[in-house]
Amino acid sequence: MDCLFCWSLSKPLYLLLFFCSFSCIANAAFNLSTISFDEGYSPLFGDGNLVRSPNGRSARLLLDRFTGAGFISSKMYKYGFFSANVKLPGDYTAGLCVAFYTSNGDVFEKNHDELDFEFLGNTEGKPWRFQTNLYGNGSTHRGREERYRLWFDPSKEFHRYSILWTAKKIIFYIDDVPIREVIRNKEMGGEYPSKPMSLYATIWDASSWATSGGKYKVNYKYAPFVSEFKDFVLEGCPSDPIEEFPSFDCHESDARLETADYAAITRRQRSSMRRFRQRYMYYSYCYDSLRYPVPPPECVVIPAEKDRFRDTGRLKFGGSHQGRKRRSRRRGRIQVSSTEYDPDV
């Protein structure tokens, strides 16, 4: 959509500003170099449920009653930019979880780092929801999740989901709209992810928790459930976490990350991020004073934003939430046994 076209529509001004902002930002694409599947990834699990395209530029992950599927980056990275265009399954998707994330849980089982996009399915006619999260040094007892809705149907067309991770900050993007920024500070200490991680993509049965706290399960009458990935981007410094003397000098790679166009949020992007969070974020751990009487050190509490949330971290105009035990999550991920909260219950 042309940015100027928005102004010709007879809608309330705040809606015009909101959608025009996203349209304009989305048209200002980042300068990215894409790779083929085999250039950066390897199968993780699922055998025949991971289907690569004939030209190797895309891959499908399927979930059926026998197994889900996943792939993993062939290398681990000490900081990077990880991105792909993704299309999610449609129709009835309750109980599904499609994840695009970085982790080193296979190497550091007790003190792993992790950065998550987790897309949570829903009953037919209801929209997908998703959450972002981060763990540093095994801080699974201290979840940092936020949950959101989307301004589009992610099953109808591809959208780009990206994670920027540097020594100074973490930014989650949808298309070119930043939706969450975490600035490192010394109070975070080891809870800021800082060890080399791999990039993962998975689809799996999360019936025990993904939709309304497990009320709605995966219905295999609608299988196979298909998620599609293409236009892969892996930017960063390859790193072996157990090498005594690293074989790669990361200074040049880190400098490229710090100066890339996706590393700095422009004034227009920051405005779009603020509007996204005002309209689509429905849970934030930073405002969950029952869970965290003192907000974690990276939280930036915005009084006008805080006023919209209950002391549970949930929006005042809907829902309740409670603690529960989260069960083993997906193949290729470590088990998180600490108590977590589900804002959709």
Automatic annotation (TrEMBL):
Compositionally skewed regions (Basic residues) per UniProt: 322-333
Main location: secreted
Keyword Transmembrane helix included in the entry's annotation: no
Intracellular or extracellular location(s): Secreted, Cell wall; Secreted, Extracellular space, Apoplast
Known EC number: 2.4.1.207
One MF term in the entry's GO annotations: xyloglucan:xyloglucosyl transferase activity
Region ranges (Disordered): 312-345
Residues annotated as the enzyme's active site: E114 (nucleophile), E118 (proton donor)
One of the Pfam families matching this protein, by short name: XET_C
PROSITE patterns reported in the protein's UniProt record: GH16_2
Domain GH16 as annotated: residue spans: 28-229
PTM per Swiss-Prot/TrEMBL: Contains at least one intrachain disulfide bond essential for its enzymatic activity.
Record-level GO BP terms: cell wall biogenesis; cell wall organization; xyloglucan metabolic process
GO cellular component: apoplast
Signal sequence coordinates: 1-28
Record-linked PANTHER family: XYLOGLUCAN ENDOTRANSGLUCOSYLASE/HYDROLASE PROTEIN 8-RELATED
Function summary: Catalyzes xyloglucan endohydrolysis (XEH) and/or endotransglycosylation (XET). Cleaves and religates xyloglucan polymers, an essential constituent of the primary cell wall, and thereby participates in cell wall construction of growing tissues.
Entry's family note: Belongs to the glycosyl hydrolase 16 family.
Name used for this protein in its record: Xyloglucan endotransglucosylase/hydrolase
UniProt organism field: Dovyalis caffra
